[in-house]
Amino acid sequence: MIKRVLALLFLILLQLSAKQYDSNIIDIEAKLFVKIALLESSIQKSDNTLLRIYIVAKQIDNSAAMQFKNAIQADYPDMLLNKKIVVKAVHFQDAVKQKPDAIIVLEHTEQKLREIAKWANENKIVSFAYDPAYLEYGVLVSLYFGKTTQPYLNKKIIQEYGFVFDPYLIQLSKFKE
Q1: What is the pTM of this model?
Q2: What is the spatial distance between Cα 146 and Cα 142, in angstroms, rounded to a whole number?
Q3: Count of beta carbons in the 10 Å neighbourhood of residue 5
Q4: How far is CA 127 from CA 12, 30, 104, 133, 163, in A?
């Protein structure tokens, strides 16, 4: 009996420590992140007919990762700008082995966010954050939701690693310095 109570308590605490994701935000980000990725020069000019987007999540956030994956697949079941969108929900170690074109980063510790962002930037992988605060750790792109929805770009990372985005996106975006 005590084991059951402890197991139940553990599960409740685990759920309380999980980040809460807004399904409306996930749906909007799923639509826009794909289009923003295609506005990056190296992805745009690549001969590869696939756009590989990985959602990098911890085990506890698998349901949010799957929601992102399903939303992207529903929005882009066919080709977009001559590229087939391939989406996977993975742990960071698996993303490192396969080198996608873009990643969507869900909640991680500050140290892990810095590690993920550094790896992505050094490998010219466009990184998106569910939470705009993650730009502080080196993630490249996020969205701001206010009166309007607006892309946030990490200016320091763009300059340091040589990412080149379409001028239209640059005009629309706000920059995190």
Answers
A1: 0.86
A2: 13
A3: 9
A4: 32, 13, 6, 13, 11
Q: What is the pLDDT of residues 42-60, one digit of tens each?
A: 999 898 999 999 999 998 8
Residue 62, token pair as written in the block: 């698998």
**Tokens at residue 109, please?**
């510790």
Domains located in the chain, CATH noted: 21-176 (3.40.50.2300)
Residue 151 burial (CB < 10 Å; 0-12/13-18/19+)?
buried
SS (H, E, C) 69-132: HHHHHHHCCCEECCEEEEEEEECHHHHHHHCCCEEEECCCCHHHHHHHHHHHHHCCCEEEECCH
Adjacent-strand bridge partners of 150: 144
pLDDT digits (tens, 9 = 90+) for 55-81: 999 988 999 999 999 999 999 988 888
